[in-house]
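We emphasize that the prediction below concerns an isolated chain of 462 residues; any contacts that depend on oligomerization or on bound cofactors are therefore not represented. The input was used exactly as deposited, without trimming of termini.
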Amino acid sequence: MNEQSALNKHQTFLQDSKKMAFDKDHRATIAYNMLQYETAAKTGKGRFVNLPELRRRAALRKHYVLEHLEDHLKNFEHNFTARGGKVIWAQDEQEAKQSILSIFEQHYVKTVVKSKSMTTEEIGLTECLEKNGIESLETDLGEFIVQLTGERPYHIVTPAMHLSARQVAGVFHQHFGLSEDASPEEITAFAREHLREKFYQADAGVTGANFLVAETGSVSITENEGNALLSVSYPRIHIVVAGIEKVVASLEDLDMFWPLLSAHGTGQSLTAYNSLVNGPAQKGEGEGPRQMYVILLDNGRSRLLGTTPQRRALSCIRCGACLNACPVYCNIGGHAYGTVYSGPIGAVISPHLSGQLREHIHLSHASSLCGKCTEVCPVVIDLHQQLLQNRRLAVKMKLPSRTERFGMKAYKMAMSKRKRLDMVPPGVKNFVARTFFGKAWGPRREMPKVVESFSKQFQSSE
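Result of the prediction step, given as a token string:
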């Protein structure tokens, strides 16, 4: 991507961010939902006897797996295929989608039910299936809602967080004729009834994976609604799309990761449904798919794995805690980022997964660097430091514009010597500030004025 295209991407981000930040209804909805989360998460994390120690152990386990990623992936493949499953390695999203289409063509699949999966969002699977004449239905209630609105998920864990109960009722009124005053309970009951028939009729089910257990070849799926279980149980074909970083060494690791994921993601002691799927239905089993495939997706993950120290971001377990803690995300929301993964974790990994650092580097500047994201991360990823590392990498690659690079050199030269600053009159300083920083400072804030140099202020205070 050239410099002008990247600039356009940046400008779009600024415009969308401004629009959402000053939308009072949006701010009210997000503030309410975030308060609910904070209350639940505080209770959930308070149940741990020694949470810092557990987070440290989880971080070490993820670090160990990433250091031996190839071996663990091979172990997973061996143990999964031993029970009749099939593993497909996909270098990028095109290979992943082509593999899925090939499977569906082979088995004459025309209808698909999907459980919540950010990885399938990453490869644009729903749009791909629709273009190829295959009906694809999201079965997670939040995902179902955003599919009806034609939007992308707003949040990693709660896709429809940006919509109020009244707005959701309006969506169901528009599409299904429900009352505009329908309660959340009535909407949920209708969605359950509407979707249940789709599970019976579907030719294939597609899910993601929260974890892949190398020791047993198991696919771990965590959910609160049971739609993933139904997507696995009824259709004759089950496809799992999972990033290669989702692998863990053993079942014992889930003893750490399941509680950490639920406490940081929703504040629960344990998510309602934690399933382990070990392959297609075995002889004598009445339920389950006849064919099961796991697509191991790279799509830039190997590139990120080779980038130090940003590779630590591959430890992420997608709990969404960093999004909920980030003051920037809480003001501009998930859609403004323009990427599948938003918030601090999205700002770190998106430039590397896409291979377009120039296109997404502005996201690494969309941060106050307060460190709250690092503080709440269950696997202790130093996200605010990774954002700085992205910025450093961008400078090293000379991605900032020539004007910006020249300006920073001039700023460095001016600031490196106190005498140089003191030589410049206050009026000139104010002119430079207005001219070069006024637009970035924004029209809603008043630019501070320099009255006298810091040296003089310091001397007069003695």
